[in-house]
Structures are given as structure tokens and as C-alpha cells.
Amino acid sequence: MVSETLKGIEEKMKASVKLFRADLATIRTGHATPALVEHIRVDYAGTPMSLNQLAGISAPEAGLLVIQPWDKSSLRDIEKAILKSELGLNPTNDGNIIRIAIPPLSEERRQELIKIVHRRTEERRIAIRNLRHEALNGLKQLEKDKEISQDELKRSQEQLQKLTDFYIMEAEKSSKGKEEELAEV
Predict the structure, then answer these.
(1) Could you tell me the residue ranges of all domains in the chain?
(2) Given this structure, which CATH class describes domain 34-101?
(3) Largest CA distance in the chain
(4) Strand pairing class (64-69; 98-101)
(5) What string of DSSP letters covers 51-90?
(6) What is the CA angle 117-99-58, rounded to 5?
(7) Could you read off the pLDDT of 31-59 as tens digits, one per residue?
(8) 92: exposed, middle or buried (C-beta count within 10 Å: 0-12, 13-18, 19+)?
């Protein structure tokens, strides 16, 4: 019972940190990376789809992204979606492919992005703590139903706290890495 609860919550925490890392990858640094735009939702034939489902995305050089749609008729839709995104990028369309020059970040924009990273890190900490709270309620219910002893509850609470601390630390490591990346000029 206890090990199943802890294992289940650890999987959720692991998934939460993995999602957080993917989320951080979408925050623009001075380098072009396909992860920057692949999540953008494009309204294609009335259906919202992610950009990576509609086109090949590559970064042939540090300051350039190239998007090659599989269907040329989607060029305008892709261009519109990129312009509407909060990334502040200006795509150029030559009729076959879309090029996006990634300008170097200003110091002001860098600071804004670092604040965004801090906010998202705090949101992730809260999410992990909520998972801990969910597991804690489950463990307390097991003790209340006399399925585990008070000693087992105490031990499992300590294990749960260690898991929580570990995954919060993992999220913070990812956050620090992104901050360092943003601080590079």
C-alpha cells in the first residue's frame, strides 16, 4: 500500500519535472533551437496543431531557424501563428520556407526572461508540494483505516518528504541552468 502510493507519487513528480524542463526549453535565449517554436499552435484547416506536426524545423546556424512546411498551403497559417506567439519573432516567408532570425537578447529582455523562469520555477515547486499533499492525505487515510501503523505512517512521511525535496531540487537545477544560459551574452 505505502510503496504503491510513494511509487505513484514519485512518477507524477518525475513527470512534472520533465514537463518543466520542456517548458524551460521554450524560453528564448540568444541561440536558435527548434524547441523554441515547435510548441506553437497553428490553426491548420480549422484544426489547431503544433508546428512540429506541420513542418520540419531546423537551426542551421546559431541565430537562424528554418521552418519547412510539408504542405506549402500552410505557410501563411504558420507565419500568422508565429507572429501571434509571445516570442516576439519576425518570420520571413519566401514562398517555400520560413526563416526566423533570432536577434541577440537585450539586457532588459534577459531580465524579463529570468523573471519568467523564476515564476515558472515557483509554480513547479507548488505543483510538487501539491503532489506531496495528495500523497500525504492518502497515507493518512491508510493509517485511519488501520491498514498501516503510526510508525509506518511516520516513516512513509519522511520518505515522501525526501522525494519532494529531491524533485524540487531537480526543478531548481534546471532553473539555474536556464538562468545561466540567459545570462550569457
Answers:
(1) 2-25+106-183, 34-101
(2) alpha beta
(3) 70
(4) antiparallel
(5) HHHHEEEEEEETTEEEEEESSGGGHHHHHHHHHHSTT---
(6) 65
(7) 778 888 888 889 888 888 888 888 999 98
(8) exposed
List pLDDT tens digits, range 53-98. 889 999 888 788 899 999 888 888 999 888 888 777 888 988 889 9
Classify 184 as helix, strand or coil: coil
Provide the residue type at 82 as one letter: I
Tell me the pTM. 0.70
- Nearest residue to 23 (alpha-carbon basis) of 181, 174, 180, 176: 174
Cell representation of residue 169: 531540487
Angle of CA points 130, 170, 132, to nearest 5°: 20
SS3 58: strand
- Cα 110 to its chain centre, rounded Å, is 18
Torsion of CA 159, 1, 151, 134, to 10 degrees: 60
What span, in angstroms and rounded, lies between the C-alpha atoms of 96 and 120? 36
Query: In the 8-state DSSP scheme, what is residue 74?
Result: G
d(CA 41, CA 50): 5
State how far the Cα of 80 lies from the Cα of 183, in Å rounded to an integer: 30
Q: Minimal CA–CA distance to 43: which of 73, 77, 76?
A: 77
The fold of 2-25+106-183 is Topoisomerase I; Chain A, domain 4 (1.10.132)
